[in-house]
Amino acid sequence: MTAARLEQYLASVLQAISTDTNEVCLKPVNSTFDLFTIYLENHNTGLHRYQTARQTIIFMVAGTINIKINGKNIRLATGNSVFLEPKCEYDVPRQTKEDIIVKFEFTNHLNFLNAIAKFNDDEQKIVSQIKLSLKTERLLYLKNSKLAKPTQLMRRIVDEYLNQNLFTSEMIRAELMMAFLTTIRNQKLSALPLVNYEFAETALDQYIDENFAHITLEQTAKHFGLNPNYFSTLVKQKTGKSFVEHVDERRMQEARTLLARPDISVRDIIAQVGYSGKSFFYKKFNEYYHETPVQMRTELFRQANINLK
């Protein structure tokens, strides 16, 4: 099916819809196909509001529209796609008759990057950016033109799904991989960013807050799906502080909170906040607060009218 015929077919489906549902399920010809389900966005009035239950690709077959994803406005034109992780919220405003949006809802978790055995240094840097974006932003914006090869591949995937020829599942998997990698390659070669990405410092702070007592750079980098060296550089570059400085800051805040409690000894506090030795803890504490833990505890007790004598 040519691009024009595919658009005509999908437009005819939209015209034939008599219900007021926000999306219409396009069932595959082969009932055993279980890679994903395609939904066609209806043209009924009102704001269409969703939360993804599974990984989802929104593909703009035709037209242009501004949708809101996780509170951010993203402009989708013909050929553009957005890959969404589960629990993403997005709104689709009222469309024109020229707009055609299809959505792929995957049955099982899909990970293109794990299917590739080895990356060189340049590829690894891009893969790290992708993983970090998926971890923090929970989406990838894949910007392709109407005539770009990835757009043609996405159209072929829809066509394969609707017509179900021999080896459809294998063909669609291969075409998805090709569309994904071609998009990354083209945007890298044209010096365009893969996504409009900003390091989410709040995500790092939350992880440190939950794990500061036993945290390491290696395990934190693994949590965010990044190489430790690249992660360390990225944290410093984006926040102005090193990973160690972030951890020490959180530990010092916890130490101050615990020092205000008369039922916990300084020795126990040192262990609870994640330091292994008294001298090192005292050194860090003095660098951060410019006084000793004992001096701070005395002042905190005085402010709280606590007298242990």
The pLDDT mean sits at 87
* Beta content: 15-25%
What is the CATH topology descriptor of the largest domain?
Jelly Rolls
- SS-based class: alpha+beta
Please summarize the sheet with the most strands.
Answer: 6 strands, antiparallel
DSSP summary, beta strand count: 10
> What is the straight-line distance between the termini?
88 Å
Identify the CATH architecture of the largest domain.
Sandwich
CATH class of the largest domain: Mainly Beta
In CATH terms, the superfamily of the largest domain is Jelly Rolls
Architecture blueprint of SSEs:
Elements (H helix, E strand, L loop, with lengths): L2 H14 L6 E4 L9 E6 L6 E4 L4 E7 L1 E6 L2 E6 L3 E4 L4 E4 L7 E7 L14 H16 L2 E4 L6 H15 L4 H22 L11 H11 L5 H7 L4 H12 L3 H17 L6 H8 L4 H12 L3 H11 L6
Antiparallel strand pairs: 1-2, 2-9, 3-8, 4-7, 4-9, 5-6, 5-8, 7-10
